[in-house]
Amino acid sequence: MNRATTPLQPAPDRGDAPVKFEVRDLVRTRTATSGAKVTAVDGVSFDVHEGEFVCLLGPSGCGKTSILNILAGLDRQNSGDVLMDGKPVTGPGPDRAVLFQEPALFPWLSVRANVELALKLVGVPPDARPDRAMHWLRNVRLERFADAQPHELSMGTRQRAALARALACDPDVLLGDEPFGSLDAQARELLQDEVQRVWVESENTKTFVFVTHNVREAALLADRVLVMSAAPGRFIEEVRIHAPWPRQLDDVLVARVVSEIHDLLMQEVER
Ligand SMILES: Nc1ncnc2c1ncn2[C@@H]1O[C@H](COP(=O)(O)OP(=O)(O)O)[C@@H](O)[C@H]1O
Ligand SMILES: [Mg+2]
């Protein structure tokens, strides 16, 4: 089979899986420092099914962070509905972990203690915390940094610790707001591999929703990409990605998805 001439196939549709997030007519407005009203999110609707890896992709300022914060329960919409497992999202919860661009670790605690503190906060009994923390530190190959403090680590290693902390709490959903955005190319690649592996190993029990402005990253990670227009954000296209896991950027299917999405975004800019 010549992969270069095989047409892109839709990824297996997880439409049969229960709906994890149902977002309808979401609107979020803001007030700029000038006092002007800014529409950050302009009536977007989408579903995310259980076990999917969805990327929201769009240019800076199109409302990605606004949407993600609302899914996380860290912010509220002005209008529209956001349901998780059929119930309105009214605040944050242990069912959702968030990875931010800056790994938000407590600087005075070791990597291990950061993970154990998170386990305490989600109600894991004290005697279960050390083993569970080390299990996840090993899982993301961080065991040798368990007793290091965040300032002793590179940004990539800190973000890896934040990933271990998020996963140790066993959330149903992992939300990522450009968590690789401030990493150098090599650290980014390692973390992307780690995230792909964790999601594949969860065997469709965990739902990942990441936002990014990086077309390659979306094509590498997601099984469905929701492409957004420039501000105020609307969805312009949905792209399913069929490439097998683990994915590499030089995989022919991944490269073709990258150019397809790139063309879409260019058409949008030229409009
Ligand atoms: N706290 C805020 N106050 C005022 N305007 C904001 C605030 N947060 C975001 N915005 C505006 O809302 C729009 C969408 O922002 P955001 O959701 O951060 O987009 P993205 O994550 O895609 O870059 C932008 O125009 C931004 O300037
Ligand atoms: Mg953002």
Question: What do you see in this structure?
Answer:
By secondary structure, the chain is of the alpha/beta class. The chain has one domain (3-95, 171-270): 3-Layer(aba) Sandwich (Rossmann fold), CATH 3.40.50.300. It is 32% helix and 24% strand. A six-stranded mixed sheet has the order 6-7-8-3-9-10, with helices on both faces. A four-stranded antiparallel sheet has the order 2-1-4-5, covered by helices on one side. α3 crosses α4 (155-168) and α4 (155-168) runs parallel beside α5 (185-201). Residues 30, 32, 38, 40, 58, 60-66, 231 line the site of adenosine-5'-diphosphate (ADP).
Main attributes?
271 residues; alpha/beta; Rossmann fold; four-stranded antiparallel beta sheet; 7 helices; 10 strands; 32% helix; binds adenosine-5'-diphosphate; binds magnesium ion
Strand order of the largest sheet: 6-7-8-3-9-10
Write down the overall geometry: globular
Instruction: Work out the helicity level.
Output: 25-40%
Instruction: Give the distance, in angstroms, between the N- and C-terminal Cα atoms.
Output: 38 Å
Radius of gyration (CA) equals 19 Å
Largest sheet: 6 strands, mixed
Overall CATH architecture: 3-Layer(aba) Sandwich
User: Ligands in the structure?
Assistant: adenosine-5'-diphosphate, magnesium ion
